């Protein structure tokens, strides 16, 4: 199967008077790990379900490789829902073999693929256990195996890291990196923004059913307000409060964090700090994705 990207083009969805999605548009390129983040109810799961054909959109289109997605194409997708989508009384191995066969694998191939992912995800000791008897973390591993067992060409994962211990997070992270290295587009949602920042090539931030910011973390930083850290030990409390275009975010023991508008000359801030005495630190602070998310969603700072 040639490498192809996943496109969400102007997708909208309503439930009565509630707008779940409004003109949702983004793409996941071949070999790209795309992080899909937003508050609860922002529209992430609805978007994923529409991409998988579980829900129908009111407007817009989902394409793969530039073509509208058909049922046969969707069989090449691997989907991991946020809610447990497994048969609780079915044994792990039997379940994975059954799901692989549903996706078209022959019985022998299905068994080989199931055993491969059971081993890879450290589930061999649980392969004959019923899913309902597993810990939540191991259930999550089985859920990932179910999304991968048929060697999909697209991965759509809803909160895949939820409930995992650090070792399992590392294993899953490595699996996702291997899939993107093979040219597979991967999109996953997560509230663990430190993981999203570390793993993803690009990030889309969703708010109230709309894509409000999209790009690499560095690109998102470029659209956020500048923050400066200034340490002037001899400066009086509030020395920066009256500088036009500057907001004091925190101040303690001569160290202040300042939010600075684009048009402000930071050299003027430095000069004012030096006028109070020595300056031990004057630096720009790189915002973490958590702070960028807060800026975009809660404060509306998007450009």
TrEMBL record:
PROSITE patterns: ABC_TRANSPORTER_1, ABC_TRANSPORTER_2. Residues 6-233 form the ABC transporter domain. Keywords: Antibiotic resistance, ATP-binding, Nucleotide-binding, Transport. The keyword Nucleotide-binding applies. The keyword Nucleotide-binding applies. Its main location: membrane. Belongs to the ABC transporter superfamily. This is ABC-2 type transport system ATP-binding protein.
């Amino acid at each position: 199967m040639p490498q192809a990207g996943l496109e969400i083009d102007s997708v909208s969805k309503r439930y009565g008077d509630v707008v779940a999605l409004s003109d949702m548009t983004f793409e996941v390129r071949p070999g790209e790990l795309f992080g899909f983040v937003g508050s609860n109810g922002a529209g992430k799961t609805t978007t994923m379900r529409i991409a998988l054909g579980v829900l129908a959109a009111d407007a817009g289109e989902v394409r793969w490789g530039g073509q509208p997605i058909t049922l046969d194409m969707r069989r090449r997708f691997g989907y991991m829902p946020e809610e447990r989508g497994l048969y609780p009384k079915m044994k792990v191995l039997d379940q994975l073999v059954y799901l692989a066969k549903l996706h078209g694998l022959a019985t022998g191939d299905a068994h080989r693929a199931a055993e491969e992912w059971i081993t890879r995800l450290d589930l061999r000791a649980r392969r004959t256990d019923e899913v309902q008897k597993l810990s939540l973390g191991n259930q999550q591993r089985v859920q990932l195996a179910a999304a991968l067992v048929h060697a999909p060409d697209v991965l759509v994962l809803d909160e895949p890291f939820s409930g995992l211990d650090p070792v399992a997070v590392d294993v899953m992270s490595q699996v996702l990196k291997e899939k993107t290295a093979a040219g597979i587009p991967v999109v996953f949602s997560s509230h663990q923004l430190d993981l999203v920042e570390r793993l993803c090539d690009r990030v889309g931030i969703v708010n109230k059913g709309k894509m409000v910011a999209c790009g690499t973390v560095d690109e998102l930083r470029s659209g956020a307000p500048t923050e400066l850290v200034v340490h002037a030990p001899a400066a009086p409390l509030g020395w920066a409060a009256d500088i036009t275009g500057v907001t004091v975010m925190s101040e303690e023991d001569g160290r202040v964090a300042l939010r600075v508008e684009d048009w402000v000359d930071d050299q003027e801030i430095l000069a004012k700090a030096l006028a109070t005495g020595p300056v031990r630190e004057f630096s720009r602070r790189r915002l973490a994705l958590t702070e960028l998310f807060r800026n975009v969603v809660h404060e509306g700072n998007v450009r």
